[in-house]
Amino acid sequence: MSELAIQTVDLLRRYGKYTAVNKLNLTIATGSIFGFLGPNGAGKTTTLRMLAGLLEPSSGQVFLHGQLIQKTSTAAAIVGYMPDFFGVYDDLRVWEYLDFYARCHGIEPAKRKSTVDGLLDLVDLSDKRNAFVQHLSRGMQQRLCLAHALVHDPKILLLDEPASGLDPQARVELRELLRTLRDMGKTIILSSHILNELEDICTNFGIMARGQLLAQGSLETLRQRSRPALQIKVLDDLERAMRLIGAQSGVLRVLEPAEETPNLIEVEFDGNEQQASQLLLNLARAELPIADFHREDDSLERLFLQLVNDHVTEEQL
Amino acid sequence: MSNRAASRRWSLQPNPIVVKELRSRMRGGRAFILLTGFLLGLGLVGYGLFLRATSGQNNGAPIFSAQVGQTLFAGLAFMLLFLVILIAPAVTVGAISSERERLTYEMLIATNLPSHRLLWGKLISALSYIALLLLAAIPLGSIVFLFGGITLSHVIQAAVIIVLSAITSAMLGIWASAMTGKTGRAAVVSYVIIGLVLGGFLFGAEIWTNRTTDPVPTGLLAPNPISALASSLGTLSGPGSGGGITTMRAFEAIPMAAGGGPGWWPGSNPFSNTGLNFPGWRTFSIGIYPATDQFGPDGMPIIAEPRSVWRITIIILIMACLGFFWMALHAVKPRRRWWPTWGDAAMLSVTSLSLLGLGFWIGWWFR
After folding, report:
1. pLDDT tens column, B9-26
2. Is domain A229-297 annotated with CATH 3.30.70.100?
3. Which residues 93-122 in chain B show a CB within 8 A of chain A?
């Protein structure tokens, strides 16, 4: 158990009759960067809050480095937590802000200044040391908030949507910072809906939907669960196209187009290249306006959508 | 780190909340504007009281310096009581809820800072500002000593009542803030409770005195800091002035000067129980002076010694503070558990026994 940074056993959290997290069994190895994926309301934030000791599970257990978490203070010593929506004390200067959290963690006065200076250096805010927090840009505030979570040198970092609201440049900077932290030996758990960002940096992933963990493991492990697919963009007559596609050999399932891409039909397909070619030919013969036809890659995003769609379909059945 | 080591480490360091709050509270002009307004208000009220206390001179009535001092002291004490009771919740209603509203609460409770230190920090930083106001008022208040008529025991009693009322009021604000989670709602809850305690009990006592000649029940007087302060200040004049040597000398002197009877007869004595010459005194002291069936030579009823309800009020305020603190402590914990722990039970037992012991030892309950 000591090799695991985090282990949850049948972790369950209910709000009245609503089950936000349902019997979650999560294992995260020490030193990994774990990407927590899931649509809104999947239970990611609830899970992170329970891991941080901020929310009491309705049942189940959380172990952090083998230690059962029953009190917030136990988790606080091990975990640095950065919530998805965070505020800052506008009327404090940048160094005062970190100094405050250093005091809250009981860091001795002799070490406090070097801790604050070191963190400002790490998040590249040394030149803003005496600026008021309210005068920082969103990206700088995000980095400052990350620094606050590191002030007591925790073994585990829980970052809830750390990249939300950041411009591309700030995201790149944040990614670099996370890599640095990984090199420092921290175990990092971050939730995000920007899947390609996670793909670049995370070593392991967990996919959640409706409170349940659908899959977890490395990208390679998850890819083994993915089914090949085709994406077909049809400009008109979508229903006829879907009927026709569904009747072709090699087609396992035709998924309803997503709201944001109403002309894009995703097809689960386990046929060979000849069958794919025949499918395209049949669509053309039916005079359907095909704008795009290609095999889908094994991206995290597709895997994520596939698992979530499967789960929703299972629940509906 | 063991709990004992952690608590030893905490005890050696200043409270982080106090450090932060003091850093940010004293930035900008808000704190200084309030302080200036407070002192100006207090100064104007003091000047008004002085004019009122000396207005009798225009009619040729003798005015003694002690009378002016007593009126000034009592008026300023009530003014201070009202101000601190009203200002303290204003400073504390956002203590917890503002952390929630500006989304810093989770980050705060995710630290190693124990909940009780969080609350203490909020309370101490709020009270330090109230203390600043009270300290700033000392030079103004000390003017009363130039006039005389006040004893040290009166000053201490009034100070204890005012300070305890301020702490309770601040604690009420913190409790409301922790329970409601919204600053606006916490302010409404706090001021409704304060209004009910200050006005409601006075109103109840007023109805009681209008309906019956029986003494107003202690339960209607003791929970109210106004009645408590009135009962303490009531001994400034008249019988039972509680060792107020200066006061007694002044009272003894008046009837002779005015050609009246003994000093404790209200009809002839301008320094009698009803003689504290400022607006509201009559209302504030409802039920404090029990009616007697004895009459003086001038046919006016003799006013009995004022009831010392302030002693019970002190106990009530301390218990209220502890109660609010306990509830707030449970409300700020991320994992709320409302059933009392052994620590809670031990704290309640020790506090109750200490207060009871103190009460029996000096006979407070029965005086």
Report:
1. 666 678 999 999 888 877
2. yes
3. 102-104, 106-114
